[in-house]
Description:
Number of helices: 1
CATH architecture of the largest domain: Ribbon
GO molecular function: metal ion binding
Number of strands: 8
Strand order of the largest sheet: 1-2
Protein name: LIM zinc-binding domain-containing protein
Region (Disordered): 120-153
Pfam families: LIM
Keywords: LIM domain, Metal-binding, Repeat, Zinc
Shape: elongated
Amino acid sequence: MAPSLCAGCETVIDEGSVIAFGNSLFHLKCFICAKCSETIDCESNLLLLSNGKPVCENCSYSCNVCKQVIKDEAIITGNEAYHSECFRCVSCKEKIEDLVFTQTSKGIHCAPCHEKRKLEKQKRRERKRQDQMGQQKMHVIMSRPEYDNSKNN
Length: 153
Protein backbone atom coordinates (compact mmCIF):
# COMPACT_ATOMS: atom_id res chain seq x y z
CA MET A 1 0.00 0.00 0.00
CA ALA A 2 1.29 3.47 -0.92
CA PRO A 3 2.15 5.75 2.01
CA SER A 4 -0.39 8.45 2.84
CA LEU A 5 0.53 12.08 2.27
CA CYS A 6 -0.50 14.94 4.52
CA ALA A 7 -2.80 17.28 2.58
CA GLY A 8 -1.29 20.24 4.45
CA CYS A 9 2.47 19.80 4.04
CA GLU A 10 2.41 17.06 1.37
CA THR A 11 4.93 14.88 3.24
CA VAL A 12 4.49 11.23 4.14
CA ILE A 13 2.46 10.46 7.25
CA ASP A 14 4.47 7.68 8.84
CA GLU A 15 3.52 7.89 12.52
CA GLY A 16 1.61 9.85 15.13
CA SER A 17 -1.95 11.12 15.23
CA VAL A 18 -3.70 12.37 12.12
CA ILE A 19 -6.94 14.12 11.29
CA ALA A 20 -9.11 12.73 8.51
CA PHE A 21 -11.08 15.52 6.85
CA GLY A 22 -13.08 14.90 3.69
CA ASN A 23 -10.93 12.53 1.65
CA SER A 24 -7.69 13.93 3.08
CA LEU A 25 -5.38 13.18 5.99
CA PHE A 26 -3.50 15.86 7.93
CA HIS A 27 -0.77 15.91 10.58
CA LEU A 28 -2.24 17.59 13.68
CA LYS A 29 0.05 20.61 13.23
CA CYS A 30 -0.89 20.87 9.52
CA PHE A 31 -4.64 21.04 10.08
CA ILE A 32 -4.93 24.82 9.60
CA CYS A 33 -7.47 27.19 8.10
CA ALA A 34 -6.84 27.79 4.39
CA LYS A 35 -7.64 31.50 4.85
CA CYS A 36 -6.15 32.63 8.18
CA SER A 37 -3.60 29.80 8.71
CA GLU A 38 -4.69 29.38 12.35
CA THR A 39 -4.51 25.84 13.73
CA ILE A 40 -7.99 24.36 14.04
CA ASP A 41 -9.30 21.31 15.83
CA CYS A 42 -11.70 18.74 14.53
CA GLU A 43 -14.43 19.92 16.95
CA SER A 44 -14.81 23.22 15.06
CA ASN A 45 -17.56 23.89 12.55
CA LEU A 46 -15.52 23.74 9.34
CA LEU A 47 -16.03 24.37 5.67
CA LEU A 48 -14.52 21.93 3.19
CA LEU A 49 -13.08 23.60 0.10
CA SER A 50 -13.17 21.73 -3.20
CA ASN A 51 -9.38 21.29 -2.93
CA GLY A 52 -9.86 19.36 0.34
CA LYS A 53 -8.58 22.14 2.62
CA PRO A 54 -10.52 23.29 5.70
CA VAL A 55 -11.71 26.82 6.46
CA CYS A 56 -12.52 27.72 10.07
CA GLU A 57 -15.89 29.06 11.14
CA ASN A 58 -14.50 32.60 11.58
CA CYS A 59 -13.27 32.68 7.99
CA SER A 60 -16.30 31.20 6.27
CA TYR A 61 -17.00 32.45 2.79
CA SER A 62 -20.21 34.10 1.62
CA CYS A 63 -21.76 32.95 -1.63
CA ASN A 64 -21.21 35.41 -4.47
CA VAL A 65 -24.77 34.77 -5.74
CA CYS A 66 -27.08 34.49 -2.72
CA LYS A 67 -24.77 36.30 -0.24
CA GLN A 68 -25.44 33.65 2.45
CA VAL A 69 -22.60 32.14 4.53
CA ILE A 70 -21.36 28.87 3.03
CA LYS A 71 -21.54 26.15 5.68
CA ASP A 72 -20.89 23.15 3.47
CA GLU A 73 -18.84 22.55 0.33
CA ALA A 74 -17.75 25.71 -1.48
CA ILE A 75 -16.68 26.25 -5.05
CA ILE A 76 -13.94 28.87 -5.17
CA THR A 77 -13.05 30.74 -8.37
CA GLY A 78 -10.33 33.30 -7.79
CA ASN A 79 -11.70 35.57 -5.05
CA GLU A 80 -15.31 34.42 -5.37
CA ALA A 81 -17.05 31.58 -3.51
CA TYR A 82 -20.28 29.80 -4.38
CA HIS A 83 -22.64 27.22 -2.88
CA SER A 84 -22.62 24.25 -5.24
CA GLU A 85 -26.34 24.89 -5.88
CA CYS A 86 -25.68 28.55 -6.78
CA PHE A 87 -22.82 27.77 -9.18
CA ARG A 88 -24.68 28.34 -12.46
CA CYS A 89 -23.99 29.62 -15.95
CA VAL A 90 -24.97 33.29 -16.31
CA SER A 91 -26.17 32.63 -19.87
CA CYS A 92 -28.35 29.50 -19.65
CA LYS A 93 -28.80 29.46 -15.82
CA GLU A 94 -28.00 25.72 -15.72
CA LYS A 95 -26.12 24.37 -12.70
CA ILE A 96 -22.48 23.65 -13.57
CA GLU A 97 -22.07 20.09 -12.28
CA ASP A 98 -18.78 19.06 -13.88
CA LEU A 99 -16.83 22.21 -12.88
CA VAL A 100 -15.89 22.79 -16.53
CA PHE A 101 -16.48 26.51 -16.94
CA THR A 102 -15.01 29.79 -18.11
CA GLN A 103 -14.95 32.94 -16.00
CA THR A 104 -15.11 36.22 -17.92
CA SER A 105 -15.86 39.81 -16.99
CA LYS A 106 -19.51 38.91 -17.72
CA GLY A 107 -19.52 36.05 -15.18
CA ILE A 108 -19.30 32.26 -15.09
CA HIS A 109 -20.21 30.39 -18.29
CA CYS A 110 -20.65 26.65 -18.88
CA ALA A 111 -18.53 25.21 -21.71
CA PRO A 112 -21.35 25.12 -24.34
CA CYS A 113 -22.39 28.73 -23.65
CA HIS A 114 -18.76 29.88 -23.70
CA GLU A 115 -18.23 28.26 -27.11
CA LYS A 116 -21.45 29.89 -28.37
CA ARG A 117 -20.27 33.31 -27.10
CA LYS A 118 -16.87 32.83 -28.79
CA LEU A 119 -18.53 32.00 -32.13
CA GLU A 120 -20.88 35.00 -31.87
CA LYS A 121 -17.96 37.30 -31.07
CA GLN A 122 -15.98 35.87 -33.98
CA LYS A 123 -18.96 36.45 -36.34
CA ARG A 124 -19.33 40.07 -35.13
CA ARG A 125 -15.61 40.69 -35.74
CA GLU A 126 -15.87 39.17 -39.22
CA ARG A 127 -18.94 41.32 -40.09
CA LYS A 128 -17.15 44.43 -38.83
CA ARG A 129 -14.07 43.56 -40.89
CA GLN A 130 -16.23 43.01 -43.99
CA ASP A 131 -18.04 46.32 -43.41
CA GLN A 132 -14.69 48.11 -43.12
CA MET A 133 -13.44 46.43 -46.30
CA GLY A 134 -16.59 47.55 -48.13
CA GLN A 135 -16.13 51.14 -46.96
CA GLN A 136 -12.48 51.12 -48.06
CA LYS A 137 -13.44 49.87 -51.56
CA MET A 138 -16.10 52.57 -51.86
CA HIS A 139 -13.60 55.22 -50.77
CA VAL A 140 -11.10 54.05 -53.38
CA ILE A 141 -13.71 54.17 -56.17
CA MET A 142 -14.92 57.64 -55.17
CA SER A 143 -11.42 59.10 -55.07
CA ARG A 144 -10.47 58.13 -58.61
CA PRO A 145 -9.88 61.23 -60.83
CA GLU A 146 -12.49 60.30 -63.45
CA TYR A 147 -15.14 60.49 -60.70
CA ASP A 148 -14.00 63.84 -59.36
CA ASN A 149 -16.78 66.29 -60.39
CA SER A 150 -15.03 69.31 -58.89
CA LYS A 151 -12.65 69.62 -61.89
CA ASN A 152 -15.49 69.70 -64.42
CA ASN A 153 -17.15 72.80 -62.94
